[in-house]
Amino acid sequence: xxxxxxxxxxxxxxxxxxxxxxxxxxxxxxxxxxxxxxxxxxxxxxxxxxxxxxxxxxxxxxxxxxxxxxxxxxxxxxxxxxxxxxxxxxxxxxxxxxxxxxxxxxxxxxxxxxxxxxxxxxxxxxxxxxxxxxxxxxxxxxxxxxxxxxxxxxxxxxxxxxxxxxxxxxxxxxxxxxxxxxxxxxxxxxxxxxxxxxxxxxxxxxxxxxxxxxxxxxxxxxxxxxxxxxxxxxxxxxxxxxxxxxxxxxxxxxxxxxxxxxxxxxxxxxxxxxxxxxxxxxxxxxxxxxxxxxxxxxxxxxxxxxxxxxxxxxxxxxxxxxxxxxxxxxxxxxxxxxxxxxxxxx
Length: 346
Hints:
CATH class of the largest domain: Alpha Beta
Helix content: 25-40%
Radius of gyration: 20 Å
Strand content: 25-35%
CATH architecture of the largest domain: Alpha-Beta Complex
Shape: globular
């Protein structure tokens, strides 16, 4: 049997192709897709950077687009956890198993049931929520700590909401004031949040912390400039934690790093287990006492927080597209006309 799937053509655009359905394997489920979410920044980068001479070459290389979605379980394969049943609505995450396609075979550790109160299209944000959550956990934000989020794209807005939910005082910085306005739509009016721009960030942080500096800085942006990294070190206190969740040029002088004893780390996608074939493909979970928050558990917790309304995602939806109109969506995304979430309806 064949299905429709979306690929980057290697020449600056996306295309659809009829390809064989994925092969089944143990500890996995077959999912009929209903909704997938376009991660604008990531998919724009794939489309612009992929280099292929033909569509067939792109298909052979497996250059699919997308990595988070939702659908209905149609078949449960042997040895799969009993929590997953035929007919369940599920959220799925993680390439190469989840992408923009009609049908998926998803390992049990990357697939969780959607709460009854949550729509499938909102559930597609759970994968991005898991990515933001892993970086947020690495920053160790606490009650009363000052957390600075640099970048108010979808990941930055989700990370900001998590820091607020944890009781931190939060500053969010972005060049685009419309992004900051979108953030304000996601949080209560009385949220312990300051929105500012990069040129004012250092002064705002100094004022809030009385010159001490931020406890945690989360870098949630994609840029080829090194300035955000340098600024993150400058605004942090002595031994502050700086976590890179996005993509940027990691360059900084030794002197400022030495003077602050800054702890820098780069979060890897949604958490422990990512890119481990034993955890992902084979479906062998990590024990709780070894890895409390795997990518699967972060995905499940993200679903719970979205369902509760702790994480607001409705303001992050830019457009809902019938899958037949995918080319129009990618035209906007590739040309930088939007960084909101685009949902494909299958």
